[in-house]
């Protein structure tokens, strides 16, 4: 039996406003709160420095982007070192003129910048016009060894793809963090809202079970309509799922809060031994996954 090894995670569920400086200040407040409650890893929601600007296609929003590493990661490095926590921060990356990514930076508890994950799956739906802003990621699926355990990061739309979770787990990740900005179109909430939210959580809990890892979904809250109109109502509900897919903790749909849970990483070995999905994978039979659909010659 594996020796018990624990780590405590803190998920920051926050409201985001127009001014980046205000969001950064609010994020720091919550990071400090999480650290005070014992968190060793703290994750912020997707693109936390601004309102969710992808509700429209507007070239002016490219001014929100920054280099990674850059000014915000520098501040996060200092905060991580001071508080001795691992920080996972989702940012709008300016890679080069005309080339931008939806990116998350990973900073270790000693303040060292470990690297970044660029969002691989980019949506293009009403009020989620991300293809206008973001180039698909090209860094692959990775795991980082931190002072609090092996961390993997995926971002929002990635959460619907089992391949992404599996490949990240195969890189050694014990914890999968999904910084997220997801919510309801107000006109759809009454008819579809409960089912949409349930599907979102169900998909990620299935990743936890299928891979024997902890999964953390980290969402924002509040109604945002940066260009007017109906806008989006973000449903919060940040959660932590165990390696057996069970729900360990869940946040509210409409309040700013820090969700804290202590994870027993030894349960990963127990889960994978009793439910040996990694053992029974038919890696000799999966070439079809590289095809778009069906039998393509």
Structural class: alpha+beta
Q: What is the terminal separation in angstroms?
A: 48 Å
Number of helices: 6
Mean pLDDT: 96
CATH superfamily: Carbon-nitrogen hydrolase
CATH topology, which one? Nitrilase/N-carbamoyl-D-aminoacid amidohydrolase
Q: Proportion of β residues?
A: 25-35%
**CATH architectural grouping:** 4-Layer Sandwich
Order of helices and strands: EHEHEEEEEEEHEEHEEEEEEHH
Strand order of the largest sheet: 5-4-3-2-1-17
Work out the radius of gyration: 18 Å
Biggest sheet details = 6 strands, mixed
* Level-1 CATH class name: Alpha Beta
- Work out the helicity level: 25-40%
**In total, how many domains does the architecture comprise?**
1
Q: Quick one: how many beta strands? A: 17
Uncertain spans, ≥5 residues at pLDDT below 50?
none
Envelope shape: globular
Mind explaining what this structure looks like?
The protein is an alpha+beta fold and 297 residues long. The chain has a single domain (6-277), classed as Carbon-nitrogen hydrolase (Nitrilase/N-carbamoyl-D-aminoacid amidohydrolase, 4-Layer Sandwich). It is built from 6 helices and 17 strands. The chain has helices at residues 20-36, 71-83, 162-170, 186-211, 266-274, 277-280; strands at residues 6-13, 41-43, 86-96, 99-107, 113-118, 124-125, 128-129, 143-146, 149-153, 175-179, 183-184, 214-218, 221-224, 232-235, 239-241, 247-250, 257-264. Strands 5-4-3-2-1-17 form a 6-stranded mixed sheet. Helix 3 packs parallel to helix 4 (186-211). The longest helix has 26 residues, at 186-211. It is globular, with a radius of gyration of 18 Å.
């Amino acid at each position: 039996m594996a020796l018990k090894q624990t780590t405590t995670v803190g998920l920051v569920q926050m409201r985001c406003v127009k001014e980046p400086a205000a969001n950064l200040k609010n994020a720091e407040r919550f990071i400090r709160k999480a650290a005070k409650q014992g968190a060793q890893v703290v994750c912020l929601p997707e693109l936390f420095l601004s309102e969710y600007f992808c509700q429209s296609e507007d070239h002016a929003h490219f001014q929100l982007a920054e280099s990674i590493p850059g000014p915000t990661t520098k501040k996060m490095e200092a905060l991580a070192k001071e508080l001795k926590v691992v920080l996972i921060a989702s940012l709008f990356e300016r890679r080069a003129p005309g080339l931008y990514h939806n990116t998350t930076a990973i900073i270790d508890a000693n303040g060292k910048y470990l690297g970044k994950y660029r969002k691989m799956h980019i949506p293009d739906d009403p009020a989620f016009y991300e293809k206008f802003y973001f180039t698909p990621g090209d860094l692959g699926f990775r795991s980082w060894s931190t002072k609090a355990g092996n961390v993997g990061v995926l971002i929002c739309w990635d959460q619907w793809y089992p391949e992404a979770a599996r490949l990240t787990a195969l890189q050694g990740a014990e914890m999968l963090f999904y910084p997220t900005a997801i919510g309801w179109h107000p006109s759809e909430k009454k008819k579809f809202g409960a089912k949409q939210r349930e599907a979102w959580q169900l998909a990620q809990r299935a990743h936890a079970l299928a891979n024997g890892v902890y999964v953390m979904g980290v969402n924002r809250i509040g109604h945002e309509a940066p260009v007017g109109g109906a806008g989006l109502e973000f449903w919060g509900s940040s959660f932590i799922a165990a390696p057996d897919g069970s729900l360990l903790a869940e946040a509210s749909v409409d309040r700013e809060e820090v969700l804290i849970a202590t994870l027993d990483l030894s349960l990963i070995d127990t889960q994978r031994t009793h439910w040996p999905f990694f053992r029974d994978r038919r890696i000799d039979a999966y070439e079809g996954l590289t095809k778009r659909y069906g039998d393509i010659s």
